[in-house]
Amino acid sequence: MKRTFHVLLMTCLILLVADCTSLTSSPSFSSDCVIVISVDGLRPDAILSEESETPTLDRLAREGAFTLEANTDPEWSVTLPNHTGILTGRFVKNHGVSLNDDPEPGTTVHSLKGEYVDSVFNWVKLAGGTTGLYASKTKFSLFLSSWPAQIDESAVSTRTMSVVDKLLSQMETTQFNYIFLHFRGPDSTGHEYEWMSRRYLNSVERVDQMIGRVVEVVESNDGYKNRTHLIVTADHGGEGTDHGDITNPLHYTIPFIVWGPAIQKGPLSTNADSGRPGDAGPVRNGHAAPTALRLLGIQPPKDWDYSTLLFTWKRANLGPRVGLSYGLISPMAKESPGPAEYIVR
Ligand SMILES: [Zn+2]
């Protein structure tokens, strides 16, 4: 009994200290950035395949924390529902977007759900950060309509190379804190020529080269060097020319890589003790949202289905400004702000 109380007391003290930290720290992550990259339809064995040259993805996996056995949403293995999960940290059944076509004008995540749905963009903006969304399928316009005041810079076009060019040129003048970047290529070639066909693998190779250009900027630009983390995952895999069968492991198994100066090479796992439904099973792409927030020093909202993934932090090699931001800064209210605080001007 006495011991239990002691543990409780210590827990309270730790919570108090944590609370003080959150009160006294400004949202000082202005030089930290997380880039979440989703490669549409990327199967994990396309990275490992000896038939494809993917030096950048291989390197990110080799140097970072990763798993090749991550999963999509438990009930959906299609594009827009899974990407909404990647941005909102929720199951599809809880963010409400089962739509997978170009949205009708005026459609938002909120109108599909029937209530306001917050995203990683909301939380980064509330903390004073700058965000970007760069995607190569037009249906991603759903997110621009949903969070227009929370997405600072964007390019949504099927011309992938031009989307990447716009991002890289924007990074020269803008200090982003959160960037979502989407590559459609492997999905498009998979549907046309089959997953793991030569054309599919060629497309994965082209995406790898474009991710290589992003890494080059991250490693050479002073605003991003040694203070940027990458999360690389996918919305689904595929077999034959399809990926919509949630009972097929080749459809729902995807890679998940976390790479950057704070990450020790090693495995990734869920926080099974968190009590959140999304953490009870495997790593899923929805873990990208809370993990990105955590890397930025922002406490993920309590009502999300997923919490931050577990990996080993590499503290020794952190630059001072990067190190400062890992104190679980929580510039927002303890509970998620209500919809009123999100009303779009
Ligand atoms: Zn897709």
* Rg, alpha carbons: 19 Å
Give the ligands present. zinc ion
Instruction: Give the distance, in angstroms, between the N- and C-terminal Cα atoms.
Output: 54 Å
At CATH level 2, the architecture is 3-Layer(aba) Sandwich
Strand order of the largest sheet: 2-7-6-1-5-3-4
* Residue windows where pLDDT falls under 50 for at least 5 positions: 1-31, 316-345
- Percentage of residues in DSSP E strands: 5-15%
SS elements, strand count: 7
User: In total, how many domains does the architecture comprise?
Assistant: 1
Q: What number is the mean pLDDT?
A: 85
Assembly form of the protein: single chain
Q: With helices defined by DSSP (H or I, 4 residues minimum), what is the helix count?
A: 14
Main beta sheet, described?
Answer: 7 strands, mixed
Order of helices and strands: HEHHEHHHHEHEHEHHEHEHH
Give a verbal description of the structure.
By secondary structure, the protein is of the alpha/beta class. The protein has one domain: Alkaline Phosphatase, subunit A (3-Layer(aba) Sandwich). Helix content is 38%, strand content 12%. It has 14 helices and seven strands. The protein has helices spanning 2-24, 44-48, 55-63, 79-88, 92-95, 109-113, 120-126, 141-146, 160-173, 185-193, 198-220, 249-252, 288-295, 320-324; strands at residues 33-39, 65-71, 131-135, 153-156, 178-183, 228-233, 253-259. It has a seven-stranded mixed sheet, sandwiched between helices. The chain is globular and about 45 Å long. The N and C termini lie far apart (54 Å). Bound molecules: zinc ion. Zinc ion binds at residues 40-41, 79, 187, 235-236. The site of zinc ion has 6 residues, from loops.
